[in-house]
Amino acid sequence: MATFAYMARDASGKKVTGYEEAVSSEEVIARLQAKSLIVINISASSGAEAREGGFRPEATAIRFRFRHTAIKEDDLVVFCRQLATLLGAAVTILRSLDIISQQVASRRLHHVIRDLMKHMEAGLSFHEALAKHPKIFSELWVNLVETGEASGNLANVLSRLAGYLERDAAFRRRIISALLYPIMLMCAAFGALLFMTIKIVPTFADLFKGFNIDLPLLTQMLLTVSNFIRRYIIAIFVFSVVGFALLKAYIKTHEGRLMYERLKFNLPLFGEFYRALTVERFSAGMSTMIESGVPILYSLEITEHSLNSLVMARLIRQIKEEVRVGRPLSQSLEKSKFFEPMVAQMVAVGEEVGDLPQMFKRINTFYQEYTETFLVRFTAMFEPLMLIMMGVVIGLMVVGMFLPIFHIATIGGG
Asked: Is CB count within 10 Å lower at the N or C end of the chain?
């Protein structure tokens, strides 16, 4: 084992130095990152240096092994949090980007950060460099960074943005976890029914050929369905894939997207859930931007493009125009009929007391809890309903297959 000297910073930006014994520098980095430290420098050290407690300032730069190529949501969260920490510790932005680029897990993000540095060295500001990568850094990123640069408070703005990204990522994970079980249950049910239709029913069909009897209607229907699926299963699969691809392509068009969103918001059970998800996203973005010093009109304009919803974009555009001519935001929200009265009332209170960001945060918390509660209840209700439906379908198939046998047994007994 070797001894490695390291320099790092903690979450508050305080410099931390020391020595670690490990097989490799990667092991030391993993240990330090597990302690929420941002590694700045690391180098192999002799035992004498360790006893003297010295640290070599000329320590070589870290070279991190990339763990994946794509840029994941968590990569951006970590990047934003690390950048906020380093800037808060008075490290220059170019030096901060250089440090982070050597530690990112994503190969593509490493190249993007190096490209940001290249643009900034050529004279662009940080937000202008971010704008060169619109597929990675959204308008929310660009405009919040621009606000932070203009106010000279970039570290705090990035810290708020990191908090928003962390909360959003955690919320998405909870939503996906809640939906995972119902999806797996549906796939298992579909697989079981398909197996019985393709394998079990034909076995009984071969058995029935030796019987000189009229098959019951239920049995005839099962055999007809089984024969149809077995004969045209490839055509059914191809048709399904092509149909899905065409539907997806249509939804990407303006008219198709608008129709899809309207259908989604008007579904009997899930319409309110999708509406709540949209309001949650709206309130999260508004609270982060207003708290960071972005004016309300500008915040609405950014939200209009960042929600990725044509229905919401139209509503926010109308709200923005009404606010522009002097109407309070709360009245505009209430007039839209999309937001519940509670939202408008809480925004009105925030406008009166001058604490609009805090009110949007409370709205965001309420709708996060609402959507999570909805999913918990839906999952609890879905499981027994799915089991009952599977039981009924499989029961009908079993009855349909055994009815001829019961009929033969009855004739033979008579």
From this structure: C
